Each structure stands twice: as structure tokens, then as C-alpha cells.
Amino acid sequence: MTTALEPHITSPLAANHRSGDAVTPRVKLYKRRIAISHPDPQAGERLLAEALGAVDRDALHGLLRQLVKASAIGQKPDETNLAFMISTIRSIAPKDSIEALLVSQMVSVHMAAMRCACRLACTDDLPQQETVTRALTRLSRTFAAQVEALSRHRNSDERAITVQNLSVQDGGRAIVGNVTQHASMLVAETGPSGTRQGANP
Asked: Region Disordered: which residues (predicted)?
């Protein structure tokens, strides 16, 4: 059974947690529409939304349309490529809309890089090899930058460390009061007298 997407209806789809080992439904491509293959249409939409990190039908519809275009071989969308891209996104598990967009770009860049690698392997023309090599290098660097951006986004919530007890050796200097380290900065709290005792940058 297939269900066509309804782009004009916006409502939450993704559950608060992922559905364990539930299999992400396949997406069927037709000439004029995209359909989700699942016995239960609502469950199929929810599972696919969870896989892509989409928060509602509009987001799901938009991401699918973009991924379908990126899956194309010779300007024709390819179901096998699309299934691979969706599976890869699901394995990375985007946790919010920013990650959903970034991870979708990552798999699209990867697909483009592999197309370049295929062209490079299939040509003996030196000028074409140089052109394709430059494109492949740029795509590879872009992918690495995207991986780094995803890592930074996921680790953006820095944890504060509070030091309450410390020992000072002869000739050393100390700060009186509690010291909190956050974002590479040390801030000294006021001592018992109510005056600031000092701070280290």
C-alpha cells in the first residue's frame, strides 16, 4: 500500500523518541508523485519523518523532494540511490531541523563526490581528469567541513567546571573564592569581604 504526501497539511509527525528497530519505509517514485510504501500510511509517514529529522509534513515533503533530485542519475531520480541516502541519514540520526538540513546536504555532497570519482575512473583524457579531480577535491573538503560542523553543533552546549578547593605551592598565586571555568575563561567570585580578589583570562 502506498500513500502520497500531502504538502498542504502541516502537523507534527515525529515522535519524541525513535521507534527502536522499526524499518524505515521505502519511497516509491512515480512520474508525478512520491509515495511512501507502508501498510499503515500514518505510521509510514511517522517513521520516515523520524529517519529524516522532519518535524511535520511540510518538512518531510521538502526534504524528500530535495533528496529525490540529489539522487538522480542522468537527470532521472533513482530509487536505489534515494533509499541509500535515507538509510544514511537515519544512521546519523539528526536531532533537530538544523541537523536534518546539514545531514541531507552531507549525503548529497557524498553522492556528488562519488559521481566524480566514477567519472575520474572512467576517463583517460588528461584535461578532463584534472577538472574532475579538482571537483572531487572540493567536494571531499566540503564533506569534511560538514562533518566538523555537525560535531560542533552537537557539542555546542559547553559544561561549566567549578573549582572549590585548590592547593598553592611556595611562590604560587591563588584566587580567594570559587572559580568557574566556562568557554576558556576563568572568573573569580568575590571573597568573604565582598571584594573581587582577581581573575585570570
From this structure: 1-20
- At 7-65, the pLDDT tens digits run 444 445 544 445 545 788 899 998 888 889 888 888 999 999 999 999 999 999 999 99
Alpha helices in 155-181 (DSSP H): none
d(CA 102, CA 29): 24
Q: Does position 82 have pLDDT exceeding 70, yes or no?
A: yes
- For residue 169, the surrounding DSSP H or E stretch is none
Residue for cell digits 588528461? 126
52/43 Cα distance (integer angstroms):
14
DSSP letter string, 74-139: TTB--HHHHHHHHHHHHHH---SHHHHHHHHHHHHHHHHHHHHHHHHHH---HHHHHHHHHHHHHH
Q: What phi and psi, each to the nearest 5 degrees, are found at residue 51?
A: -65, -40
Query: Quick check: 193 pLDDT over 60?
Result: no
pTM (2 d.p.): 0.68
Residue whose C-alpha is closest to residue 116's, from 130, 103, 96? 130
Q: How far is CA 89 from the centre of its chain?
A: 8
Say how far apart CA 76 and CA 121 lie, in whole Å.
22
Task: Find the helix or strand (DSSP H, E) in which 67 lies.
Answer: helix 57-70
Per DSSP, the three-state class of 181 is strand
Report pLDDT for 164.
60
